[in-house]
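Lecture notes, unit on protein representations.

Consider one protein chain, 285 amino acids long.
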Amino acid sequence: MSKIKLIECPRDAMQGYSKFIKTEKKINYINNLLKVGFYAIDCGSFVSEKMIPQMYDTPNVIKSLIKEESKTKIIVIVANERGALDASNYDQINIFGYPFSVSENFQIRNTNKTIKESINVLNNIIEISDKSNKEVVVYLSMAFGNPYGDPWNIEIVLDWIYKLKLLGIKTISLSDTIGISEPNQIKKILNAVNSEYKEIEFGAHFHSMSSDCYDKIKSAYSSGCFRFDGTIMGYGGCPMASNELIGNIPTEKLINFFKKKENNLKLNILDFENSIDNFKKIIKH
């Protein structure tokens, strides 16, 4: 079995899309993605409708997913205790994703809470996840730099990872929310965290220009990262980060890269190609 874990993120692709995508289209699209064989699908958010209007129908989408024949895990974003409590009622959900930033300014911008307040919220979410048999992945944003004026260096990143470890977090997705990471920096950070925290699984959630994708994927993979987030066609970006969204790593490029590196990367390519066609239809309307 391949050690690579690919996470498709339609939530990230859709959340910044200005026109509301009908719930039925989301359901059909994600159900098709469930046939592909991804490790996980990040497909919705239990957050305020005012914050992310595109995701207000997540509960209806989740309860309509057909998971019986799929081993793919379902991830949803929760930013507070209420979201976690609501999401805990759905057996289809396997993982809570929590957005946490090393940048005070971005944490406030993203969740309307300080870092100190966010740590308390995360601790409560972990308790809720334990009671409802869910996993937690922390999306550590600004892990590769901070444009908002807050102090940033690798030591700060490592210090926050240590604090997350003390809370019991076992999976951290290092997030380049605004697309500023560079290959040498990616190597330096991933080598440091993998050396320091062998008990934590680190993933890569890159936002990137398409021309830089392969270099970033290669740098992360060669530094011991085997968990990667992507979106079909590289669509999306964080609407809380800036007015100009920088898209995600295209899933097509992740698949092309790892097909050459991993003999056992087993995906249903026909269903993946159908998903690409489906997504193109969605964004045309």
